[in-house]
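Annual report, structural modelling task.

Input specification for the 4'-deoxy-4'-aminopyridoxal-5'-phosphate complex:
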Amino acid sequence: MSLLPFDKRDGHIWLDGAFIDWKDAKLHVLSHALHYASAVFEGERVYKGKIFKLEEHTERLHDSANFLGFNIPFDHEKINHASKQLVKKLGISNGYLRPIAWRGSEMMGVSAQETTIHLAIAGWAWPSYFDPEQRLKGIRLKLSGWKRPSPETAPVHSKAAGLYMICTLSKHEAERQGFDDALMLDWRGNIAEATGANIFFVFGDELHTPLADCFLNGITRRTIIDLAKQRGIKVIERTINLSEVDSADEVFLTGTAAEVTPVGQIEESSFSVGEVTRNLMDDYQNITNS
Ligand code: PMP
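The model returned the following structure:
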């Protein structure tokens, strides 16, 4: 991955209906989104020049905005078209797209009823989120002290910028202690997810994953549930307690960026990368590259 900062790269970014030069895609410091986190975004993966599950991502982007009380002034068709055009224009074969919608600068206060809603779509080549070598060994997760909030505390089903504040804090703490990522519990103390990916546990020949009732029901999570069922694996969505983790046979994360990433360690508990994880990694690779 290039160390060139993201604001110094070449290419084009789609902004509010037109392609502009990458370096000109700026916003004013007095933008509502910057001060009050009135922004929602997506993370999309490009495989062989095609955006995987584009329709689902665009739908979630619109839904995320609606959860935050605003409408994106571009319909699904326009967003999908712009996204595909961008991939072509940048010549991305394997990469990542980042659409983001936010409230502009007309009002600078908690109330933001009259702000203009902006939409930008950026994209870049990006082969893998986690180090590929580390990936087959399994990543190491540190338990976070931060908890996913209840649906009465935050718009938990929105992919909203503000919800990532505790993810960054958790991940930084994990990295400081030599781990790769953090495992977050929910406000009840049950297992929720990692900082940017959902989590699955293999118990015997069954696949278990926490109920997505206070965090994103990831597009990859849903894809993996389908792929596991196609293999005849029983999938159980349920409350999972931290005390059960040690008895899991395999653990893995799922996400657009993380894809299927095996977990080798959670705190003191170790796991090997087993057959279920490896099969689902293969299935996911096949479906994304088909
Ligand atoms: N949870 C969080 C906090 C995330 O950021 C992501 C990545 N978007 C996910 C779960 C997984 O979602 P998806 O599979 O749709 O990428």
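The mean pLDDT is 96.
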